[in-house]
Amino acid sequence: MSAITLRELTKVYPNGVRALDALDLEIADGEFFALLGPSGCGKTTLLRTIAGLELASGGSVRIGDRAVTNLPPGQRDVAMVFQDYALFPHMTVRDNIAYPLRIKKVGRAARQDKAASTADELGLSALLDRRPGQLSGGQQQRVALARAMACHPQVFLLDEPLSNLDARLRLEARTFLKRLQRELGVTTVFVTHDQAEALALADRIAVMEGGRIRQVGTPTEVFRRPANTFVAGFIGSTPMNLVPARAHGDELAVAGVRLPVPEEARGRLADAEDVVYGVRPEYLDYSPEPAPGALTGRVVVVENLGSFSLVSLDLPGDDDTTSVQVVVPEGREPQPGDTGWVVPRPGRSLIYRDGELVTGAAAPPVPAPRTGVGADA
Ligand code: ADP
Ligand code: MG
């Protein structure tokens, strides 16, 4: 078993920065888990504290059935791949991959064998005698992965593993990494500031802000039902539309229009209460004509994104800067200056009060976390 359990994990650096603030988190055995958040939110610190490269200021870390909070990195049975790969430039690929085995005092013949077979798994056999300087970025990344795999650790910790690759290579490496993790079934925690990467790769995601976890969930959960407006704005290739609204019984006044209160918030709003109405651009349908239950406004920007466009409309209201974005399929784009209508899809609108999701008994059931081994992709 190599689940990871963090309890009230806190890291305060000597300069007083509280990089981790009493985090509680459970990562399942075999899970491919993403730590996602903006720069400086504590992702690297969390990874390094799990690895033992930083000592916790408070709280505990368990890996499998072992309390490892005070163990040195070498005794935690984890392997970390650093953002810059940290390969030894003077060593060949073979010696780089074999290096952790050398530290573990594995005999020369056995470690060369292991290096060769691991290199083979990652398609690096032809490169064994090269040095890192003679490799592409993608190849260097595979060598770093091979070096981490050679020891058969219980846990992989990957810090922004794809961030040094160019866009096209990053997509390839992403698919490769997902397949590799499925095949190995090793508990893997990877750090990224790229929400698309986290959604694409992870079984579950922890979204972090300022040393705290703001939501933990599957990619579907964090996309469909962000627990707060921070996650709503961070997840998704375009942020969720967040529009001021006022409750009136079972209706909401939103930008001069009456819309029904979304089912799960029904009966939970005080009369005349000011809230925020949230709906993703992907869950709005654009119409060039008036439609029932539609918000209306003036088209200000049309951005061509290939097979669809992102259309921004200014809504009427006290605050004339309120706008919504809507995804419109190709061929149906309006022109700037047009008046347009957007209809929220049923069941896809959310209500936030003081930045937190208003939810209740009608909330959809939470899907169980998928685990890495044998789970569908
Ligand atoms: P991320 O990886 O999410 O960008 P980090 O974990 O690197 O964030 O940093 C979290 C916070 O801790 C930041 O405010 C950063 O400046 C601070 N920090 C990171 N490393 C150190 C350190 N060695 N000493 C002091 N402060 C640090
Ligand atoms: Mg970092």
Distance between the termini: 22 Å
Tell me the CATH architecture of the largest domain. 3-Layer(aba) Sandwich
H/E element sequence: EEEHEEEHHHEHEHEEHHEEEEEEEEEEE
Count of alpha/pi helices: 8
Strand content: 25-35%
Q: Compounds present?
A: adenosine-5'-diphosphate, magnesium ion
| Helicity, as a percent range | 10-25%
CA radius of gyration? 24 Å
**Residue-averaged pLDDT, rounded?**
91
Q: Provide the CATH top-level class of the largest domain.
A: Alpha Beta
SSE class: alpha+beta
> What would you call the shape?
elongated
Query: Might you state the CATH topology name of the largest domain?
Result: Rossmann fold
Q: What is the number of beta strands?
A: 21
Structurally, how many domains make up the residues?
Answer: 2
As laid out across the biggest beta sheet, the strand order is 6-7-8-3-9-10
Major beta-sheet overview = 6 strands, mixed
Low-confidence stretches: 372-377
CATH superfamily of the largest domain: P-loop containing nucleotide triphosphate hydrolases
Describe the secondary-structure layout.
Elements: E1 4-12, E2 18-27, E3 32-36, H1 43-51, E4 58-63, E5 66-67, E6 78-81, H2 93-103, H3 108-121, H4 137-149, E7 155-159, H5 167-184, E8 187-192, H6 195-201, E9 204-209, E10 212-217, H7 219-224, H8 229-234, E11 241-248, E12 251-254, E13 257-260, E14 274-279, E15 284-287, E16 295-304, E17 308-314, E18 323-329, E19 339-344, E20 350-353, E21 356-357
Parallel strand pairs: 3-8, 3-9, 6-7, 7-8
Antiparallel strand pairs: 1-2, 1-4, 4-5, 9-10, 11-12, 11-14, 12-13, 14-20, 15-19, 16-17, 16-19, 17-18, 20-21
The chain binds adenosine-5'-diphosphate and magnesium ion (MG).
